[in-house]
Design goal:
about 60% helix, binds adenosine-5'-diphosphate, four-stranded mixed beta sheet, binds magnesium ion
């Protein structure tokens, strides 16, 4: 969708940035050359009255984005998770952006439901409420299933939101290209990559099947977690524009008065929230990455309910092991060990000095651990850790920033319920349990077993490969193949597997 409307959007964006005072901050962040700054101000100034005014009580950049509408708000929210791009201060400033909009009419929602179901709404639902919540991309209704009488939450995409977002995203692409062309110094911030990242995230949110599958995976992972509940997806009724989940009764975690009145165990809930988050990140490598009060409820029986699976985080197994060791190192204040883990994992280049790195880690850890237990924040510790590792040449990864950001949010939720929450004491058993299971003899045996399984798939080909290797050795004059790794790996692996089998038999007796 290239075309003149992009120019208009561009002009309106520029004018709004000028009018709200955000232009200066943005040019600053991009380190734009002087000539461009002056040109932007001179051209922008007379145009600024075409720009939107926004809410003067907000800081300039969030104010401009909020005024420009949903795609810009989403963009700001995503940038708030990228301090590597916008810097830590701006990331914090952008967190004030609230994704709340007036709901669209229930008649439109009912129409979408009927279209998605392929039959009249009344054939499936005996009751369908007014919207209970509305945001830029979707809104939620409560409904009752006709057949079973069960209550469900029906999340429905805003009609026309696809097109609206795509248009704005097109204009974003044009802006990024222009910025990179006019201000080469801005390339450091990779504007085009940032827009690609944004587009990827938003396109996912515009398909509710992605959220439904996230809910399904999270449900399966956490089914046995006592005290923690994820509503079940109704796959049969979920589609691109509509997601149906079991209705979760309870009080939102933001309503502390109601929670007090109901007499819930707030100290226990705070612990559960923190421990569950850590357990999911470490045990499953799949965590809820938007755990603010609005997305959590307390069920009447005191269980913690998680809602809204639009933003989830993933950590691969290797990263989880490394981070569990790092956290344990901090819990034990063994900075040398924390430093070594970074080197062993190859996160920090081998030519840096371990002792110096350990010293820098101590400078991060000690002031934090010197605080009262109820003030210590693991999320802040991780943020400082990333600063130090970056100084020592490690690239910060988005999934780790997401983990750190969520940790800060979860700690905030925890402390709102229990101001004396000791994060380390609550985290320790989860980290220890993970380490006991995943680092040490049990884990070594499991890794070897998996290796043996992989190698066993080559089993039928082993004799042939061994023979080929032997023939090649007996006749060195024959032309050699370049790539001899398959044989080497198999022979080595075969030996390893035999050794493992022997060890297992030995252990069994
Ligand atoms: N399964 C559910 N049971 C009960 N209420 C729900 C359920 N799903 C959503 N809601 C309500 O709708 C609100 C918005 O849903 P959410 O999935 O968080 O949407 P958004 O992505 O727009 O934030 C929630 O804060 C909650 O009050
Ligand atoms: Mg939500």
């Amino acid at each position: 969708m290239r075309g003149p409307h992009n120019i208009w959007r561009l002009a309106r964006t520029g004018a709004t940035f000028e009018r709200t005072g955000a232009m200066g901050a943005v040019l600053e962040a991009m380190e734009a050359p002087r000539a461009i700054r002056i040109a932007a101000r001179v051209l922008g100034w007379p145009l600024k009255w075409f720009g939107l005014r926004g809410d003067p009580s907000m800081p300039p950049v969030p104010r401009a984005l909020q005024a420009l509408g949903p795609a810009y708000i989403k963009f700001g929210q995503i940038l708030s998770t990228r301090p590597d791009v916008v810097g830590p201060e701006m990331a914090l400033e952008l967190q004030v952006l609230q994704d709340k909009l007036p709901p669209f009419p229930t008649t439109d929602a009912r129409r979408v439901v009927a279209e998605e179901l392929g039959q009249p709404l009344e054939a499936v639902f005996s009751d369908f409420s007014e919207p209970v919540a509305a945001a830029s991309i979707a809104q939620v209704h409560r409904a009752t299933l006709k057949e079973s009488g069960r209550d469900v939450a029906v999340k429905i995409l805003r009609p026309g939101i696809d097109r609206a977002f795509r248009k704005d995203v097109d204009a974003f692409h044009l802006m990024a290209t222009l910025i990179e062309t006019l201000s080469p110094s801005s390339r450091r911030l990779r504007p085009r990559d940032v827009i690609d990242h944004f587009e990827g995230v938003v396109l996912q949110e515009l398909d509710l099947r992605i959220e439904a599958s996230a809910a399904g995976e999270f449900f399966a992972n956490t089914e046995a977690d006592e005290g923690f509940v994820v509503p079940k997806v109704e796959w049969g009724m979920s589609s691109r524009r509509m997601m149906v989940l079991g209705w979760a009764d309870g009080l939102p975690l933001s309503d502390l008065d109601a929670i007090n009145a109901a007499g819930h165990d707030k100290v226990g809930l705070a612990r559960t929230a923190l421990q569950m988050f850590l357990r999911h990140a470490l045990r499953d490598g799949y965590f809820h990455a938007d755990m603010h009060q609005g997305n959590l409820k307390v069920a009447p029986n005191g269980d913690l309910v998680a809602l809204d699976f639009g933003i989830m985080g993933r950590l691969d197994e290797y990263t989880r092991r490394v981070y569990a060791e790092i956290l344990m190192g901090f819990i034990r204040k063994d900075y040398r060990r924390v430093a070594e883990v970074h080197f062993e994992a190859g996160y920090v280049p081998a030519d840096r000095d371990v002792a110096e790195f350990a010293q820098a880690l101590r400078s991060v850890g000690e002031p934090i651990f010197g605080m009262e237990a109820s003030k210590i924040s693991m999320g802040r510790l991780l943020a400082f850790l990333f600063e130090v590792t970056e100084r020592f040449g490690m690239e910060t990864r988005t999934e780790l920033i997401l983990l750190q950001r969520t940790m800060v949010v979860v700690e905030g939720v925890g402390r709102s319920l229990d101001p004396d929450l000791n994060i380390w004491a609550a985290a320790r058993p989860v980290v220890e349990e993970y380490i006991a299971r995943n680092i040490g003899p049990q884990a070594v045996a499991r890794d070897l077993w998996r290796t043996a399984l992989v190698l066993s798939r080559f089993g039928p080909r082993l004799p042939q490969l061994a023979e080929a290797a032997l023939i090649a050795q007996a006749h060195p004059e024959r032309p050699k193949r370049e790539n001899r790794w398959p044989e080497r790996v198999l022979l080595g692996g075969g030996g390893l597997a035999l050794g493992l089998a022997a060890a297992l038999i030995w252990a069994a007796f």
